[in-house]
Amino acid sequence: MQTISISLIAVIISCSSSAPKLAKTVEKDGTVYIEGGTYKGSDPQTKQPKTIQVKSFYIDKNLVTVAEFDEFVKKTGYKTEAERFGNSAVFDLSAQNWLMKSGAYYLYPFGLDKEKAHPDHPATQVSWNDAVAYAQWKGERLPTDAEWEYAARNAGTTNETYPWGNELVVNGKYKANYWQGDFPSKNTVEDGYLLTSPVGAFGPNKIELNDMGGNVWQWTTDSITPTGNDALIDPATRRVMRGSSFLTSPNSGNDLTVSGRASSTPETGMVHTGFRCVRDDDKHKQLAGNDK
Question: Does 142 fall in a domain?
Answer without folding.
Answer: yes
